[in-house]
């Protein structure tokens, strides 16, 4: 459940709201640099990545997610339109830089992303077709 933080910021399961923004920043940096290491290292070892709206995944485990990004890296960044708490998850509304939109649902464990689900309104480049 969300918990208030000093200054009005909320947390999800005790995690700072900024974790969702940091996740998106790591994703965008990886897209532009081609270095997926910082993005993948921020995932929990048992992380699960799912896609809704595109035929990809799911990928289970940090290594499987890393392999999917190495084999087929996305080439489009995302911009955050909003972040909200939904129970124990952060839901990020986003827009692809080349058009289209979606949501990214993140759940955390020990300060790392343990579950991520990408729901998109149009097919964009993605790992693990």
From TrEMBL:
Residues annotated as transmembrane: none
Q: Could you tell me what this protein is called?
A: SnoaL-like domain-containing protein
Segments forming domain SnoaL-like: 24-106
An example of a Pfam family matching this protein is: SnoaL_2
Q: Which InterPro entries match?
A: NTF2-like_dom_sf, SnoaL-like
């Amino acid at each position: 459940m969300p918990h208030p933080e000093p200054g009005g910021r909320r947390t999800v399961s005790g995690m700072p709201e900024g974790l969702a923004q940091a996740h998106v920043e790591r994703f965008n940096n990886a897209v532009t640099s081609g270095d997926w290491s910082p993005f993948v290292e921020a995932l929990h070892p048992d992380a699960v990545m799912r896609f809704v709206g595109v035929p990809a995944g799911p990928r289970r485990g940090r290594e499987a997610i890393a392999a999917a990004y190495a084999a087929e890296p996305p080439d489009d960044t995302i911009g955050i339109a909003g972040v909200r708490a939904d129970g124990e998850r952060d839901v990020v509304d986003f827009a692809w830089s080349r058009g289209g939109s979606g949501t990214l649902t993140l759940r955390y464990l020990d300060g790392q992303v343990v579950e991520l689900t990408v729901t998109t309104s149009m097919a964009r480049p993605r790992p693990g077709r």
